[in-house]
């Protein structure tokens, strides 16, 4: 897994090459909405894109993370299905419903049933490499190809291409600092329950870290966002008192945080400190949203592999997930 994390920058470069050379055309009507379907590591790219395009798309973009799709989906919907293996049962189910609703369905996958459906029905699709064998190690591929699908559908302009190139340069410049910070965070997280707080715009990044800690380091983590947590979770910082000894709080700060969110984060610190809880902070680096997201993703991926080493676990094994898939296949 460490080699796969090390190859993230090269993956982004390769993903851009794939996107640029993709032969994808859309012949449907002008789209009134976009839905991205995907689960787990194949779905987190859609969550990041939803935040990225919030101020760019003139139509709403929603996520579909399950077997069924919303009732509004129809002929004016661009439906993007993302699955590394192409065999994710929830995404396959959602695709079939989207096809029945006559949505314009397109795909990002390395193969499997979804690629068969795409080819059999002459639907737009971009094939990504399956070399890693790990969906969570292919975020660069799935994220970039979803951006290209939006671009080819004439919903997104080409600004993202410049921002991706800038992000690659940033990661190359910052890799030394990234590894130092990641190692320190991993040491702090060891034997603790990380409580990860970010602004709502950067929730996908916090969730990505949670996923990586779960799968790579085999360790639980908790995520919530400002300002929402100030309306509920903040009251939970009273009991059970013994739990607070096992927590470590991480703030994910960015230049895109709303001024009131920054104030809320500052004020909430006092509440955590009453439980003798210090707050660690990570500040995103980069001039654009894309740069800051990819910087944090890469940093947190390193945290997860370093923590896996400290926990003495194999970051590539996913025994519990494989067990569930095996049992589900019997029914």
Automatic annotation (TrEMBL):
Tell me the superkingdom of the source: Bacteria
Alphabetic keyword roster? Isomerase
Record's Pfam families? bact-PGI_C (PF10432)
Give GO terms for biological process: carbohydrate derivative metabolic process; carbohydrate metabolic process
Gene3D superfamilies from the xrefs? Glucose-6-phosphate isomerase like protein, domain 1 (3.40.50.10490)
Record SUPFAM superfamilies: SIS domain
* Residues covered by the SIS domain: 22-170
Q: Which PROSITE patterns match?
A: SIS
**Molecular function terms from GO:** carbohydrate derivative binding; glucose-6-phosphate isomerase activity; mannose-6-phosphate isomerase activity
Assigned protein family: Belongs to the PGI/PMI family.
Q: What is this protein called?
A: SIS domain-containing protein
Source organism of this protein record = Pontibacter korlensis
